[in-house]
Automatic annotation (TrEMBL):
Secretion signal, residue range per the UniProt entry: none
Superkingdom: Bacteria
SUPFAM superfamilies cross-referenced by the UniProt entry: NAD(P)-binding Rossmann-fold domains (SSF51735)
One Pfam family recorded for the sequence: RmlD_sub_bind
This protein's name: dTDP-4-dehydrorhamnose reductase
Gene Ontology molecular function: dTDP-4-dehydrorhamnose reductase activity
Catalytic activity: dTDP-beta-L-rhamnose + NADP(+) = dTDP-4-dehydro-beta-L-rhamnose + NADPH + H(+)
Amino acid sequence: MRLVVTGREGQVAASLLEAGQGKAGMEVVAIGRPELDLERPETIIDAIAAEKPDIVVSAAAYTAVDQAEDEPDLAFAINATGAGKVAEAAARLGAPVIHLSTDYVFDGSASHAYVETDATAPLGVYGASKLAGELAVAAAGPRHLILRTAWVYSPFGRNFVKTMLRLAADRDEISVVADQWGNPTCALDMADAILHAATVLHGDKNAGAFGTYHLAGTGETNWSGFARHILDTSRACGGAWAQVRDIASKDYPTKARRPANSRLSSAKFADVFGWSAPDWRQSTEAVVRRLQGGQAPAG
Ligand SMILES: NC(=O)C1=CN([C@@H]2O[C@H](COP(=O)(O)OP(=O)(O)OC[C@H]3O[C@@H](n4cnc5c(N)ncnc54)[C@H](OP(=O)(O)O)[C@@H]3O)[C@@H](O)[C@H]2O)C=CC1
Ligand SMILES: Cc1cn([C@H]2C[C@H](O)[C@@H](COP(=O)(O)OP(=O)(O)O[C@H]3O[C@@H](C)C(=O)[C@@H](O)[C@H]3O)O2)c(=O)[nH]c1=O
Ligand SMILES: [Mg+2]
């Protein structure tokens, strides 16, 4: 099966390229700028058709949450119009599309872990543009899987794990918000889930499985708890460490508001696809160790 993923160096694309290498019968190809430029919709159909996908994974996106507040037109062009065109390209080629979306489509006011039928109400431009992207993907054809994930980290690209390790290298203390709750998700686990889902969907063996799903790391924490686990693991491997100080969101002003609770229930995906993510702590430890050159934690 030939899987074509958008975005070459993105966390999920890079993870899919790596995961695909070890899988017999699975070929993963990544496409990106300049051939495929989501800002230039006229590039999209040809760039995807040229790669002859059996399945398309739509992972490229505008992901700068604060910057999006200043560039709403660009965020919508990429995350809504561009995503819709990617799905249209897949539909024209008769290939299903697996499109990635975000927990930031929710406002965080619920007291439970969000399920797929909960009402969306994004707090910022990024979340609104991703929600518009979901609608555009769904409008392009029925053979889509929309996977809402959250708090993605990996050895690749930019992410919170790398930021904490970098800050710890030259600070004794890092202040981190403790009043936003969610599910840290390893992009390598997402890649595993996506390859699994692609196999389940291939050849329309399970056409009833198309639709929208939440898919995130197992277990929940807040950003401060996530930071503490990253740095404690780092210290155990002989790497940098800093004290993490709990603060409130109001003491960490940002352009975009973030949801206080964007925990996702991944139960529907587990039921339908028979796959669930490892505990976030376990995957975090693996990524921190890998970023530090693979040392085992000091005993
Ligand atoms: N990161 C996170 O915490 C979360 C991400 N998601 C969603 O998951 C998906 C994957 O995220 P992640 O891998 O972290 O993303 P990254 O930010 O790591 O990568 C985004 C990718 O999109 C590409 N891209 C950006 N603009 C364009 C464009 N105009 N044309 C073509 N490619 C473009 C980038 O290309 P280049 O390398 O050239 O810059 C990059 O490869 C996204 O849809 C995101 O919204 C959902 C929840 C959490
Ligand atoms: C660097 C830093 C961040 N923070 C806060 C800011 C924010 O509330 C939280 C996380 O910071 P980030 O900038 O990594 O978060 P953010 O960019 O909001 O991450 C989001 O990205 C998009 C793409 C998604 O789809 C979401 O699921 C989510 O992962 O931690 C601190 O409190 N202290 C710090 O030193
Ligand atoms: Mg960020």
